[in-house]
UniProtKB/TrEMBL annotation:
Superkingdom of the organism of origin: Bacteria
GN (gene name): atpC
Record HAMAP family: ATP_synth_epsil_bac
Pfam families for the chain: ATP-synt_DE, ATP-synt_DE_N
Record-given protein name: ATP synthase epsilon chain
Family, similarity comment: Belongs to the ATPase epsilon chain family.
Annotated region described as Disordered, given as residue ranges: 105-125
Organism: Lactobacillus intestinalis
Oligomeric and partner information: F-type ATPases have 2 components, CF(1) - the catalytic core - and CF(0) - the membrane proton channel. CF(1) has five subunits: alpha(3), beta(3), gamma(1), delta(1), epsilon(1). CF(0) has three main subunits: a, b and c.
Domain ATP synthase F1 complex delta/epsilon subunit N-terminal: 8-90
Length: 145
């Protein structure tokens, strides 16, 4: 008889509350120092996250379900087979309003152009972050297809 699949709990929390809670066989995410993957019985860790796609694989079987979550920074803490992501903002791919994300992307590009013309480094930096967030949301939305 095969060993039962080893799953661990994954929770994603934002200032608005719990937005995701499932069991997973592996999660992939982008930390500020590079790509990370976590599996059952991983060593404890606490690391800051970059703007990116968190992929939660809920099964290693043939019918693997992968949930995509757009996160805009935050932290992941893993211990005792519980992964907790505390994010500044997070959205599941199925909940992303892609037209709103596209509008945010266009606004950010416009603000970047204006900031460059005015040589306003601080505004340029904020616009670049807004652009990365919008592009990430669009990319995560498209990953669900």
């Amino acid at each position: 008889m095969a060993d039962p699949e080893k799953l661990f709990k994954v929770d994603v929390v934002t200032p608005d509350g719990l937005i995701y809670s499932h069991r997973s066989s592996i999660i992939d995410m982008r930390a500020i120092d590079g790509q990370r993957s976590i599996m059952y019985n991983h060593v404890p860790l606490l690391t800051p996250l970059a703007i990116g796609d968190v992929k939660v694989k809920r099964s290693r079987e043939m019918n693997q379900v992968v949930d995509h979550i757009a996160v805009s920074g935050g932290y992941i803490e893993f211990s005792n087979n519980v992964a907790t992501i505390i994010a500044d903002s997070a959205e599941r791919a199925r909940n992303i309003d892609v037209s709103r994300a596209q509008a945010a992307k266009e606004r950010a590009e416009k603000r970047m152009k204006e900031a460059r013309e005015k040589h306003d480094e601080r505004s340029l930096e904020r616009a670049q972050i807004a652009l990365r967030r919008a592009v990430n949301r669009i990319s995560v939305y498209n990953s669900k297809k």
